[in-house]
Write a structure and sequence with these properties.
- The protein has about 375 residues and is α/β, with parallel strands linked by helices.
- It is about 30% helix and about 20% strand.
- The strands form 2 sheets. Strands 14-13-12-11-7-10-9-8-15 form a 9-stranded mixed β-sheet. Strands 3-2-1-4-5-6 form a 6-stranded parallel β-sheet, sandwiched between helices.
- It starts with 13 loop residues before the first strand and ends with a helix.
Length: about 375
């Protein structure tokens, strides 16, 4: 922790500097506003429309025209990076070179295999804590599954994650339509799930096998004469060092599903699973109240599934599209900035592994073969 932080009192107001305030940045702003003794001091957002929207949620924030100007604002305690994926590494490096404050950086941490070495160098020298934003860890039903999975399963041997959701939304400049800016769908969207796999299985991946494609979405779109090349569906199999196996199913033209995420963990003692609904703003009013998340325990003996609903405070639920998780993540990051915890929940190494797994999946799909993670890490 740098001396700039000076975070000793629980009642001291913590001031955030924010890089990027598009759709996800505004979700962060809404959730910061729910925390006590916090304020947004400065925002760098190049797009005029996004600046106007962000000002609604952070009316006292000063808008600046560059990262350098943001870092010159004297009373910042921490930084939040919510810019397009491909900008994260260069922005972390700029911060390190001028003012190394605690950082919460959105996923994915990087988008290109060549960035991994830059992240290693950054991690080795950066003097303040960096937390990689992996919101799915903090969805209350997912957090409950992670907490109880060991006891419920007797040790996870198989882990399955399914996300049936809506297509990619429109972003400023349409950057999320192209692999070169996102890292590819298995990186951009699925790094969340690869992070959950490592967390739940407490092991690192050995190899990845994937297949996928672009079957439905964005086929009739063009941007600057280019058609989007992002995937809209796929399967990924992952083999882990401890012998556990994991599978991901992603479909981005399935927003008609009642639940958006389904996660199941199975071991010698039984199965535990969770069902998580999508954003409440997308639930049709004619269907009545939106579904509530569930955790289901299915022991082998005595047989008999046990269903538990996991409601989320409506105020927190309405502040974002991630089942309340952004609030809980920010609460943890604030504790880190205040010095009430010694390390981030999601380290730079965690963020790096999640991207490498996504990149391995992209390569596996393109080359139609299993990809060893050692090919990306440079290890034997």
């Amino acid at each position: 922790m740098t001396t700039e932080t000076l975070l000793r009192s629980e009642t001291r107001t913590i001031t955030y500097g924010i890089i990027g305030c598009g759709m996800m940045g505004q979700e962060h702003l809404r959730n910061i506003a729910l925390l006590g003794n916090t304020t947004v001091g400065a925002i760098f957002e190049p797009d005029a429309e996004m600046r106007a929207r962000a000002a609604q949620f952070a009316p006292n924030a000063r808008f600046v025209d560059s990262i350098e100007a943001l870092l010159d604002v004297p009373d910042l305690d921490c930084l939040l990076i919510v810019s397009p994926n491909y900008r994260h590494v260069e922005q972390l490096q700029a911060i390190a070179g001028k003012r190394p404050l605690p950082v919460l950086v959105e996923k994915p941490l990087f988008t290109d295999p060549e960035h991994a070495r830059a992240i290693d160098a950054f991690a080795a020298s950066y003097p303040a804590p960096v937390w990689v934003a992996m919101e799915y860890r903090y969805m209350p039903p997912v957090a409950k599954l992670l907490k109880e999975a060991g006891a419920a399963t007797g040790g996870i041997k198989m882990l399955t994650i399914r996300e049936n959701r809506f297509p990619f939304l429109e972003k400023v400049g349409d950057w999320n339509r192209f692999n070169r800016y996102t890292g590819g769908t298995f990186v951009e969207k699925c790094c969340h799930f690869f992070d959950l796999m490592r967390l739940a299985l407490k092991s690192d991946p050995l190899r990845v096998m994937a297949m996928g494609g672009q079957a439905v979405n964005h086929l009739d779109e063009t941007y600057g004469g280019e058609r989007p090349d992002i995937l809209d569906h796929g399967y990924v199999l992952v083999d882990f060092e401890n012998g556990a196996k994991a599978m991901l199913e992603l479909c981005m033209f399935a927003e008609g599903a009642r639940y958006q995420e389904e996660i199941s963990a199975i071991g010698p003692k039984g199965k535990i699973e969770t069902l998580v609904p999508g954003p409440t703003r997308f639930w049709p009013t004619h269907l009545g109240a939106p579904p509530v998340a569930q955790v289901i325990r299915s022991p082998r003996n005595p047989k008999g599934p046990e269903v538990q609903e996991i409601p989320v405070d409506p105020t927190i639920l309405e502040a974002g599209d991630h089942n309340g998780s952004t609030f809980y993540q920010h609460r943890g990051f604030l504790e880190l900035v205040r010095g009430e915890r010694s390390a981030p929940d999601v380290s730079l190494l965690d963020g790096k592994w999640a991207v490498l797994m996504g990149l391995a999946a992209q390569r596996s799909m393109a080359e139609r073969r299993a990809v060893e993670l050692s090919e990306l890490t440079g290890t034997d």
